[in-house]
Amino acid sequence: MRLWAGTTASGLATWALPFVLGLAVLHRDLGAAGLGLVLAARTAGFLVAVAVGGVLADRHSRRAVVLWSALAAATAAPLLAVGLGHSLALMTAAAALAGAGQGACRPAFQALTAEIVTPERRQQANAAMTVAVRSSTLAGPTLTALLAAFLDVRTLLLGIGALWLAAGLVPGRGTARATGGRSPEELPDPSSDARPAAGSAPRAGFRAEFLEGIREARRHPWFLAGLGALVAVIALGYSATGVALPLISRDRYGTEWVLAAAMTAYTVGALGGALVIARLRPRSPGWAAFAGLGAYGVAPLSLMLPVHPAVVVAAYAVAGIGIELFNVPWFTATQREVAPDKLARVSSLDFLVSYGLAPVGLALIAPAIERFGVTPVLAACAAACFLVPAAAALVPTARHFGRTDPATRD
User: Fold this and answer.
1) Using one digit for the tens of pLDDT, what is the confidence trace for 95-122?
2) Residue 285 burial (CB < 10 Å; 0-12/13-18/19+)?
3) Which end of the chain is more exposed for a tag (fewer CB within 10 A), N or C?
4) Residue 21 is part of which domain span?
5) Tell me, what CATH number does 379's domain have?
6) For residues 296 and 240, is the Cβ–Cβ distance under 8 A?
7) Which of 257, 376, 385 is nearest to 309 (CA)?
């Protein structure tokens, strides 16, 4: 419960920052160009720190990495408040620090889950964390709008800092430092991660340890296939609908209601998908997960034709359900199959590739729509969402997200 509370606080703080900065633009404390610069700095800080955080979380206590990462993000909040309306340079630096804290704690949280939760309950635990994040996304805008009626933007920024303090201080310790993040039953030698004795070989450098994480990822064909499918859906599916949905809501339906309803339906669907997968145990979990990921293709497909708005909303709900039918088993399988002392690095590779390529998709989709039109671009993106996960499901070990059928394991 402490781990869940800390993860929930970090997720709410991560979501809230762009929304609160958007309020600063409405209040004319920050310009649109300044908002873009601050958010770009935050993204850059995240991408750099997520790789560093993965190595640090495998070198040291995952609990300590969560603590110091969250403290860094918490420190950024008052700096953003001080810089608001006075120094864009300070806000940009603070946003980069906030992004770094967010990025460094993500792989550490994933690895800490594997330490604290027993293997048979990890799927439920991952689903519970997803439910918390989706619920925050659903209720967050209303809550923030209510708070904004009584509090100014600077106070809201300090509130984000308080959430990061909770994210750092609340979670439990996990496995003792001497295990290097490995649970006792997974340790062939309990002293294997102790400090090097005098005269022993020095620890490998950062680059070598990061590359060791990549080699570990390559040992799992299902992981590489899933990462490729996830990138295709994020870079093409998410980006296409993110750009096209507002245009179609305005031009085809003449109202912003379709945009708001579709995005709400996606979040509600994801919430429902997490609740379902908390209990569901498919016989072929990998194939079921890839089917869920491929279901995102119905979202761009629904935008291609002049259908009733309810069809678009329903398609987004299906896409939301499907994405969590993939996410939860994906995280659970990674925690189960990857070598425990390399788990944080492999998780950081997951976040680095999927989050890092998303802006590339957004940058390419808009020019593609201008050049070829909305319908052909949506058709290509829908096809990619359907076909790439289907191809990934054919990779060896993809059926069960592991080397063997779970029913045959000891």
Assistant:
1) 999 999 999 998 998 898 888 999 889 9
2) buried
3) C
4) 2-120+152-175
5) 1.20.1250.20
6) no
7) 257
